[in-house]
Protein 1
Amino acid sequence: MSYPRLFPDFRRFTFIILFCCILLPIGILRAQAPSSPPAPPDAPAKTDSDTKPSQAPSPSDAAEVSSHDGPATFKVRVNLVLVRVVVRDSQGKVVPNLKKENFQLSDNRKPQTISSFSIETPEARTASAVAAPATSDGYSSSTDAIAGKATVLPQRFVSMVFDDVHMSMEDTAFVRNSATRFFASLAPSDRVAFYTTSGQFKQDFTNDLDGLKKALLGIIPRHISNDNFHDCPDVSYYEADLIENKTDSQALAVAAEEAVQCAFNGDETKIAMAQVLADTAAQRALIAGDTDTDYAYRHLEEAIRRLSAMPGQRVLVLVSPGFIMSTLQLEASDLVDRATRANIVINTIDARGLYTPDVMGDIANPPQDSLRTAGFKTSYRVAAQFAQEDVLAQFADGTGGRFFHNRNDVDEAMREAAAAPAFSYLLGFSPQNLKIDGRYHTLKVTLTNKEKFNIQARHGYFAPKSVEDPAEAAKQEMQEALFSQDEIRDLPVDLQTQFFKKDEMGARLAVLSHFDVKGIHFRKAEGRNKDQLTIVTGIFDENGNFVTGGEKVVEMKLLDTTYDRLSRSGFTVKSSFDVKPGTYMVRLVVRDAEGAQMAARNGAVVIPF
């Protein structure tokens, strides 16, 4: 009577022995990425993912290794300041092969410990984005590349930002002609986008040269403030900054004297009233100038954000006559920091070309100087034209770029500006005893060997005004890594891809991440080895546009026996996505909670039509 009941138990017992002794050591945990990747605002809608595991774990292992969707809590490398450095010799040639110990870095004259160091070259920024054609089984790894048949994805993305807020009509005609000649130097794998600081014109990344040439016609001056309006007194933005922000008594006196002449017919007894008029005019000019500068910053930020979502080498070329920063230096420093973290080099070109200071200002809108103030006003105009260059030099120095100025071959400058520096160094440090007060810190980078090299680096940074939320900081760090192509190897993970065609217009792409458990930092608690992995996957098309992606959190609470077994075999996490046939780059970013370590891998795949 009992034998029929024992037979199923015997089969179950045999299956358990087979599972534990043969199948389980393979250590495969295939989890699925959900449909909520950290995509940029303009990313396309994501597809649902396959959640069906290829092998079900036993109930005991399910309690030890599980996955779920949701945010993770990380330990964050707080207050890391990044400084990109380019070293050139006396002939202007870039100096390669320097090491971490060759550099010294000080923050407000206090020596700092360089905690991170990397060497940056165009080749290093260029991912191994060689897409392997489909094999008969639809399988490829991150290192596959079939000789003679591989498809090379775009490797250089150039954002050209035209400062139409500050350029004159003469400037725009000059740079349009130069840009047309620059296009002839582009390689087929290059992608170029146009932006303007007014935000009223945009051309997304493309290699269509005819389309780019037509798009150039949309680059015209679009001044936010009314430059043709002459106030009484007529105070420039540069003078307004001197009066309102730097309390320059001479600048105020000049403006007041001008008010006496234009408002009171030279009656010097009205000087007190003239000073009120001068101060009021300075406030209006400052507001108008700050508005123009803020417009430029906001749309530069937009261009940086869009370029950050592109794979490969990233270069931003700012074409501008320059502008006064006034009190908006924090915003400029933030832009440098954003670009540095996203591995974006900013090269700047003075749209005025080779010029001499224009003592009479814009010929189409001549100044209305009085005889008593003409000398001072001329000196202010000349000083303002030189001061305009400061912001262009700051953007270039802070990101490892170059500032091209005082030259008429702007087309050649654009060709040079579209390339990243041949060799740069990225230094990182965590400031000692940093106060959360928002104050400016000066930076200085020197070499220990004392050779007379020219060192180009950012001049300083602003301390944060508030403590950053660790979870949000970690999420931002992972998103920045996803839209990079830098290989990060803090964690041992290998990337492979598989696909199968569902029909002529659809395919299922699987991304497999294999982990070596021995290289993961676990925390021993309650008799288990604990850690949490957050895995983010991004799929990009051949133009570098984000297509889809996903995020998965894997919880590990391993008993010692399970840890020993997985240490020999590792385990694999699988993420699947519905895509159309085409060429794709796959980007994988992983971070663990206990060690606060990251890994990033690149892969590519061609799904044939």
Protein 2
Amino acid sequence: MTWQATLTTDTPYPNSQEHLLAGLNYVDLRVRWAVARARVLGLDPDDEFRGLYISESQIDDLLDNDLGHDLWAGRNGHTVAELPAELAQWPALIVQTRQAWETRTALSRAAGCPLLLDALARDFELTPLEVDALLLALTPEIDPRYERFFTYLQDDITKKRPSVNLLLNLLTDSFAEKLQLRRMFTDDGRLVASRLLVRFAEGGVTEPPLLMQYVRPAGRVVEHLLGHPGVDSRLAASAELLEAPDSQPALRLPAGLQTQLQRALPDNPFFAFIGPYGVGKADAARHLAQVTGKRLLRVDLATLSESDVGLYEGLRLALRDAQLLNAILYLTPWDNLLHDNQPPARLFQMLLAYPGLVITAGEVLWQPANRRASRPVLTIPFHAPDFEERLAIWEQHLGEIDVDPRPVANHFRFTPGQIEDAVATARDQARWHDTPLTPQHLFAASRTHSNQKLSTLATKIYPRYQWSDIILPADTLQQLKEMVNTVYQRPTVYGQWGFDRKLALGKGLNALFAGESGTGKTMAADIIAGELGLDLYKIDLSSVVSKYIGETEKNLDKIFTEASTSNAILFFDEADAIFGKRSEVKDSHDRYANIETGYLLQRMEMFDGVVILATNLRANLDEAFTRRLHFAIEFPFPEPSDRERIWRVTFPPETPIAPDADLKLLAERFRLAGGAIRNIVLAAAFLAAESGQPVGMSHLLHATRREYQKMGRLIDERLFTA
């Protein structure tokens, strides 16, 4: 392939590739001039061992040259007038070819012809000499002949890529100008800092001189200039290039927010989107891409941090690719970068310097400190929808399906994204069971999509009881049902009736279950969870309470934070261990214990879900907790009539019961709570199964004796005779 210089200046280039080839044709003249001078003035073409050793004559030539002058310039740096006739024409031809290229480039630009190299030079603010350096480094990527040219000019058959020194020699003969131009190839130079050029050394040399290092264009830059847009292969696992959508994704993006985002665009702001998963942050980014007509480059910072390329270098590559593609940069999850609620200063300044839109997405509210940038940083919170908004989104996703979404919209404080996911899962479950979609599918899918991290902090209890399984006085039972009704009616009271605007805190439901062990507190919590279709998590106090100052608060904060996204009921058994009365301050331990209690009071008020505190001794609870309770329900010790009902409902219908099993007698004779009765019935069932008989009085009395022994009660033999 032979390229000839062309001085045509009256027509634009037909396409971007022709423009690129013309530029390469221009720098080809620089290479040809260097080769011609090397032949005449510097290198012996007849020396078959040239490049393999240094001859005495070469040393003499080097000694004769002034500081910084290459052999191509001849001894003591000949001027053009002093050069042989066959070389004197080259400088003028190079200048004329460059001018012709620039003229046709301007014509193409005016004609609206997209030129990738011209756009790259403009977007990265490259000087003409920086463009020349990029083109010279690009030549071996287009034509392998240039590898041989460079080995010849560098007098070394192993040097197939141009060194910094060679590029400087190709760009200028002035030693003073070379000293200035070398800054183009430093780490802070635009070409290297923007990752357009890659500087490297061979042979494992530690800190080689800048002039001896080699240069090549980044592979992605080469492909881009040849008309193959994309993202660097090293970002394949952490970056995704999205085309501008044809229509606005308005499902999760209120019209008012769309207007605000568009109004801010002329200021080229740095957007910081804040909010949980599914509130519409990604939709807002796609909306901006649609409005501006630009691509969206989405970068997963968590994956990038763990990749071989690393976070900092990976972001450098992402910034370069986004600028090459004229794309909006969308970085998530931004929280991974924050330290003391601040991003790394160097990295943040690098992002602020990006000329296009940058959007970060996270869940933690932050504001930059001590920033030096002309562009504004706009922190935009994305709030989870209220009940009416959730209901509308559920209805929109369910479409024509005849299912009332009000219960799930009430019980699960989902974001739009979570609702979309839950509906998709419910449809899949209905399809698997080959049945129409039902409310049960919606509840099951919603529980699946609730945050499951709470399982690492508490024990999940799967509801299995119903109202018919619990035996309580009528008033106690009514209070429990009023609890359930309170949760059901929150949309009406807080939403339609306006109480949401009156209450800043305390919009959750806090209840106290007080009573002796085994009186039904845990069973009642189980029934309420099942009635509401929510998960029930029993807090393991041994993993919460810590002797170290501040650790208990941290543990509880984790629990409440996860519970707020889990749409779960928190059940604190033996709550007086951490919700106990504040004491008189006698030492530092008392003071910090009281701080813990005060913190818990605030945290409970901030929680919008359901919290149930269970205690055997209500008097041990701090009065401040009692004031913040919506329900305080006493679970009395069952009377004989209630105990008889407990004995009867504890037996499953399938269990064979002998005629001599006098449950009324057992209820009157033994003062036991429901928990103990369940233990006895189960133990008696095993005894009866072993003997191959129905559950009889002898089995029940024997099991009762064992329960008394376990409880440490005195054994009165008269009680254990039928």
